Amino acid sequence: MPTNNAPPTYSNRYRNYVLLVLTGVYTFNFIDRQILVILQEPIKADLGLSDTQLGLLTGFAFAIFYVTLGIPIARFADRSNRKNITSIALVVWSGMTAISGLAQNFTHLLLARIGVGVGEAGGSPPAHSIISDYFPPEKRATALSIYSTGVYIGVFLGFLVGGIVGQKYGWRTAFWVLGIPGILYAFVVYFTVKEPIKGMSDKLKVQQEAPSFTEGMKILLSRKTFIFISLGTGFHTFVNYGMGNWFPPFLARMHGLDTMTIGIWMALSAGIGGGLGTFMGGIIADRLRYKDLRWYCWISALSNLLLFFPLAILFFHANTNLVIATTFLTNFLGALYLGPSIAVAHSLVSAKMRAFASAILFFVLNMIGLGLGPLTIGVLSDYLTPVYGEEALRWAMMVSFFAAFAAMILFYKASQTYRTDLERV
Hints:
This protein has 425 residues and is an all-alpha fold. It is 82% helix and 0% strand. It has helices at residues 12-38, 40-47, 51-77, 82-100, 106-120, 124-134, 137-169, 171-192, 213-222, 224-255, 259-288, 295-316, 320-335, 338-347, 354-388, 392-397, 399-424.
């Protein structure tokens, strides 16, 4: 007979339902990021913006608030109801996306994007923690990878709907069409997702309080694997965000495609290639873990090594059809890392530190990747324009080669310390 103190049990069907709902939240997270990417050219023409300003809007201005506020929100999530935090955050970032359609100048759009970043700071860390409580360690990378497919479902919808609506009805309407549904979806999260007990799937009785910020940072910094994984994901997403945010303008300038055509093709390549890569990354890692736990790191290192050849095609080949087809492969390889990397981070800490570990991981990931990737390419493009003209963006994007090489080395270094760090947990 269960006692009054017995933890609640959940069916596999309900666990999968929660995973599906949270994947939907992550989908809206990336819809609201990606819509600005596909609409960059018409917004640039309408508001008279430079590439550096576009780099700020799609990268650094968003990222600095997203990652900075993500840490205190994650600390709060480790102590309180994570489902409520996720619901409120979804309302905020979706509302600010809709408001973006009212912007009349760079400052208006900048403030709206900051608002999106503030809202999205409360999205992933609490969701990661909830998923790790619903799914046991041997299924966690797969669950987190399924959740992470929301990235590419969001990219797919953002590119597709944003591109079509933006071209037919204007960029302002596209923000409204894709922002308002997220507010409604927040009610689904709030009323149907149940807050699990922290540590539930690890079969632990987690009675201690979450460590202080200082204690938590000491724990994370004492795990060399966490440091290498965080930096590795940072440089890896430098490639992902740098290429992803600037590839639509690249196709417009270098290959003469219109916004709707770019939106459709990028939606297909990112949605299918990236979604499949994210899904397969977790499944492969969870299966190979029985041979060697270091595969959680090796998969990410290998994906960066394999990226060099398709990147060269994207930058230098003149055939538009081949370039677009190659984006399927780059999106697949670029997506393999996420589920395994989050699973590694969670395996290195206690149950009451998981949201915090995700927040710090995403702080590094987004400051390097989202914050510096688009901005660096935008600044380089403006700097090189007097010399190379329209070709400047092509040469600016080649910084991705260096970032991919750095990511490969860092993921490999993480594999060398992973087993030792696990023994200390």
